[in-house]
Write a structure and sequence with these properties.
Elements: H1 2-23, H2 73-85, H3 105-110, H4 116-120, H5 123-140, H6 142-148, E1 152-153, E2 156-157, H7 160-170, H8 172-180, H9 195-201
Antiparallel strand pairs: 1-2
């Protein structure tokens, strides 16, 4: 019995010595094997999605652009708004274009908006205006959507979302000229942004939500 106790004490003492030695070691841990040098690192936000300007906080609880909406319809309209205004409902640019989606007064009149001051201060009305204008443009461009989607113009595969984004930029008439000239008549806005640029930048989004509507108007709020 005494002999067994002695063996147990000896084993316990040996373990304690080994643990103490390992804990008291001053040897540095070599972390070089964990280096990320040479690895290709992937990020969730593309470099061309970074906006250098500041986005103002929006009123009434509306949120600004999110880069995680993918190719959904909401992703389409928010990406377009981010390009137009940085997502700011209350801005007016140097050419007098208004709000989050940068509407001109003439376009607003076509979809039933007469009071631009009310429009600029009403985010709900701006969202309605975007939908109504896109539906109207889809009706005007319905034949061109049928004829050109899937074809290449200026090296870019034409998609419905690209056509609708370009119509928002330049108007449906200019988009017709662009497509039917196979890219030779390439409208540019006052800042140098072209139809071709919008066709490429906003290609491949799901705009099936939008129904072509010749008489699309905003509803009263």
């Amino acid at each position: 019995m005494v002999k067994n106790i002695a063996k147990c004490l000896g084993l316990t003492l040996t373990i304690c010595v080994l643990v103490y030695a390992s804990l008291s070691s001053n040897e540095a841990v070599d972390l070089s094997k964990y280096s990320t040098n040479g690895l290709v690192l992937n990020y969730t936000v593309r470099q061309d999605a970074i906006h250098t300007g500041k986005v103002k906080a929006s009123k009434e609880g509306y949120e600004s652009f999110s880069p995680y909406l993918g190719k959904s319809f909401v992703g389409f309209k928010e990406a377009l708004a981010f390009k137009e205004s940085g997502g700011d409902y209350f801005t007016v640019n140097t050419y007098g274009y208004l709000g989050k989606y940068q509407f001109g007064k003439g376009t607003l009149s076509l979809i039933g908006v007469k009071n631009v001051e009310k429009f600029l201060n009403n985010p709900k009305l701006q969202e309605q205006a975007f939908i109504a204008n896109a539906q109207r443009n889809k009706w005007i461009l319905r034949r061109d959507i049928n004829n050109f989607v899937g074809k290449r113009v200026n090296g870019v595969v034409i998609t419905e979302s690209g056509i609708l984004a370009a119509a928002h930029l330049a108007g449906p008439g200019s988009v017709k000229k662009y497509l039917r000239s196979y890219g030779l008549d390439n409208f540019a806005d006052g800042y140098g942004t072209t139809i071709a640029n919008y066709m490429k930048r906003f290609s491949g989004y799901d705009t099936s939500f939008l129904k072509a509507n010749k008489k699309a108007k905003v509803s009263s709020i």
